[in-house]
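Example (one chain per record):
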Amino acid sequence: MIPPPLAITLGDPAGIGIEVALKSLQPDVPTVLIGSSQLLDIPTVRRWAEGIDIVPISQLDRLDTTEFSPGQIAWIDPAPYLTIRPDQEISESNGKVALASIQLAADLALRHKIRAIVTAPISKRSFQLAGAPALDHTQLFGLLTNTEATMGFYSEKMNVVLTTIHSPLSEVPSLITKELLERTIRRAHQWLRSLGIKDPRIAVAGLNPHAGEDGLMGTEEITTIRPVIIDLQREFPELSGPYPADTLFWKADRFDCIIAQYHDQGLSPLKMVAFDTAVNTTLGLPFVRTSPDHGTAFDIAYQDRANPNSMKAAIQLALRMSDGY
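Predicted structure:
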């Protein structure tokens, strides 16, 4: 049985999403691109698309009957009535196209019309101008599926899952509850099992310097983090921590995944070692969603300079995670 197509949302029209998407397509993988068809009017995009058999689909139900021949790519424009602004870094219309693309992809995934979603980067500022109900992809997919989503990152060198996501640092300590940390660890364990790791070795980072130094530098490790780890160790013997974050990432090769307590704690070391190959994935959704771990890169858009490696890795991970999904 031929699986449903993979969907790639093209992100902000002023960014590098269209470039990295077209440079990452796999001829043997049925794929549908979701984004403004006006992108195909841009000379640089037409050059990138040379040799690709792009078939516009105006009726969504045709996805059920479309026969994808090798190298053929479907294209759905979620908002043909909107005029995109490829030369504007902040644009309400660009944000609306990006938002409509994500909403359509989620709807198709929930109706099992596609096998997984890979999302190109968005502009958070344009997203908000467009009236988006969330700040980022992770939060939006959570709203669209009524899920408290979790953010994870995959790379060949280390895997990282975040307890809190895009939260101000001043709010992080109050956000880390036993319920949130337990959910984060459980989802990380389930994700690693889906990748074929039988007994995942999961290390949990502390929140404070030196993991609190027995309460001298903060008490969250004592009151919240360590009790959750102890409770879950009965179920997950390979779970350990909390470790001081300044040394934990140095020995990341001893673990299958690190639980970071906040955004920069986990993403700074990850991007140091896997900036061009790391993949963002949303855990806890009823479908698979991955994304390259980089931004819109407005400064190099449409200059044929974008590195597609992270998008290629995101596609590979989406196919791996959705195999038999």
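Caption: The radius of gyration is 20 Å.
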